Structures are given as C-alpha cells and as structure tokens.
Amino acid sequence: MSLPVEKTDIDLYPSRNGHPAVILSRTDPVVYNRNADQSPVDYELIQQYEKNGFLVLDNVFTADEINSFKLEMKRLRKFTGAINSNEMIVEPESGEVRSIFKVHETSFIFNKLSLDKRLAGLAEFILNDQVYIHQSRLNYKPGFRGKEFYWHSDFETWHVEDGMPCMRALSMSITLTDNDHYNGPLMLIPGSHDDFVVCSGKTPKDNFKESLKKQTYGVPSDKNLKSLVDQYGIFTATGKAGSVVIFDCNTMHGSNGNITPFPRSNIFLVYNAVKNRVVEPYSNQQARPEWIASRESINPITAVECQSVDYE
Ligand code: 6CS
Ligand code: FE
Question: CB of 154 closer than 6 A to ligand 1?
C-alpha cells in the first residue's frame, strides 16, 4: 500500500473559501496513460474522452446483465432503509427513494460490477494507477416526481468536502433503464473538465445532509455556468439500458427532473487513483462519512473478466 498522500499546503483548486468565483485552468492531466497500445478500447475513444471530458459506450452490458442489476436495485430499495437508513436518500417532497450509497459494499452483485474489467480496466488505463471506489450510488430518479441534480463538478465537492487532492478520478454511470431525452438524462458540458469553476459561499457543517437531496453549495454561479455553455454547449447522454457514460471528475454535469412515468435509474461507480487517495478536506471541516467517500476502506481493485453468467 503506497503511503497516504500528504495534504500539500498549496490548494491548487481553492473553492468555497471566500475567494472570487472565477474560472481557473485545470493543472492535472485528463488521461494519465499516454501509451495507446495499452488502451482497452479503441484509442480514438480515449482521445474523445480527453477532448470532451466524457465518453458514451453503448451496449456494454447485455439485457440479462441489466435485468440482474434491476432486480438487485429493487431488492436494495426494499431492504436498505431498514438496515442502513443513512445510506438511503429520499426525495424531499415525495419521500420516494432518490439514491442509495455504498452499494459496492452492501451488494454482492454491485461489488462484482465494480471489479468488472470492462469498467475497472478502463479506469486503470485512464488514471494510469491502481484504482479504488471512492463512492458508489444508485440513482433511482423515479418517474412522475424524480427531482433534478443541479449543475456541479463532482471534483469541486470531492476536493472541498472529501479532501481529494487532484483531478485523477472518474465516474462510470451504467444506465439501468433507458435514458431518453424526456426522463431526465445526464447532461454534460463538453470541454468543461479543463476549467475549474470556483464556487462562492462557505460549506455549512454536515452539508451532505442537504446536498445529497438538493445541492446548493458547490454549484457554479449563473454567470460562470452561462459562460461554459456559451463556449462549449450542452450534451445530453441518452442511451439504452446497458450503456455506460464515463466522465471525468471535473466535467460540469447535471440532470433535469423526471415527470414522465419512466424512471431514469443509473448506478454510479467512482474510480479514484490510489495515488490520489483522499486527505483531510480542503474545507478544513470534518470529513464526510465513509458511506459517501471511502477513507478507511481504500481497497485497490484487481479487475476481473466478467460475463453474463457471473451476474446470474
Ligand atoms: O456529493 C457527492 O459526492 C455527490 N453529489 C452529486 C450530485 N454528484 C457526485 C456525488 O454523487
Ligand atoms: Fe455528480
């Protein structure tokens, strides 16, 4: 196990600390492995990821695999509240389940999915290091009353509230239901990963108790968001169940509410480089709980070749 990363005094990405809400340039690479021969996918796809800050891979998982994941998602919705209510976040108004965290530890199937070479192998290549799960979450976004996820950079939150030193992490969103243009699909701003948007305000104590329901701190100003959209536009990641959206930790993203009868459910697996393991939060506040951000349980992953039969 490599030595824990010492928190350097220089905060390369100061945010929510009274500084003006400006846009700084990224100082970290996006793709850490420059050896195209080692890429587990066509290298053009890696170049697309580097340019846009995200990549959509269709038909990564079979219908049988997705069915297994959906059954597991329903099972967890039924039982998690009883066992680990903290890890279950409900929608503020309807009380329906919005998210369940730490499913890579509480679910045998989703633990296996987090090790699946189709995901972990690609994360290892892009981050060019051993990887571990920083966070996992099932987002149910139920039909009729599923609420939005306002625009944000995950890294801004993970840096300020979890102590993630650098931009050497990525999220993989596996679509468990069809993500159509009408049921609140993930929206991403292509190229925004190269800009670090400093956020105003000061992080309230125990912010996560509110932010996981509705994020109001660590969100870009209207001016900065408009400047990103004017420069780069907005991409909507629609896709059939079984597709995977891989996005850099700093890509600005969000999703609208869902008033259609069709749920938009995804599982998010966040891979962080072991060399980029979290240190003390840059907000100098208490670290968020382990079920939101791995800190004690940093287990480097050994990627495993998985097929449909492995998920039955
Ligand atoms: O605060 C967090 O870590 C979570 N919040 C959002 C909206 N995206 C990243 C992560 O799941
Ligand atoms: Fe996010």
Answer: yes
Ligand 1 test: best mutation among 154, 291, 294, most atoms within 8 Å of CB?
Answer: 154
Measure the CA–CA gap between 309 and 267, rounded to whole angstroms: 20
For the CA atoms of 138, 249, 57, 262, the dihedral, rounded to the nearest 10 degrees, stands at: 40
Neighbour count for residue 1 (Cβ, 10 Å): 9
Give me the chain's average pLDDT, please.
93
C-alpha 76 – ligand 1 centre gap (Å): 20
Distance (Å, whole) CA 216 – CA 207: 9
Do 106 and 76 meet the contact criterion of CB atoms below 8 Å apart?
yes
Pocket lining: 207 vs ligand 1, CB cutoff 6 Å: no
SS3 169: strand
Question: Per-residue pLDDT tens for 227-261?
Answer: 999 999 999 999 999 999 999 999 999 999 999 99
Segment among 12-21, 84-93, 134-143, 226-235 with least mean pLDDT: 84-93
Question: Encoding tokens for residue 187?
Answer: 């929206």
Residue 160 near residue 281 (C-beta atoms within 8 A): yes
Q: Which residues pair with 131 in a beta bridge?
A: 273
Q: Rg of the chain's alpha carbons, rounded to an integer?
A: 18
- Secondary structure element (H or E) that encloses residue 43, with its range: helix 43-52
Closest residue to atom 5 of ligand 1, CA basis = 212
Atom of ligand 1 nearest to the CA of 137: 11
Q: Quick check: helix, strand or coil at residue 266?
A: strand
CATH class of 23-30+52-311: mainly beta
Residue of the nearest CA to atom 7 in ligand 1?
149
> Rounded to the nearest whole angstrom, what is the distance from the C-alpha of residue 311 to the centroid of ligand 2?
27
Total residues belonging to the chain: 312
- Shortest-distance ligand to the CA of residue 203: 1
> Does the pLDDT of residue 1 top 70, yes or no?
no
Return the structure tokens found at 219.
Answer: 């969100």
* Sequential DSSP letters for 101-116: E-HHHH-HHHHHHHHB
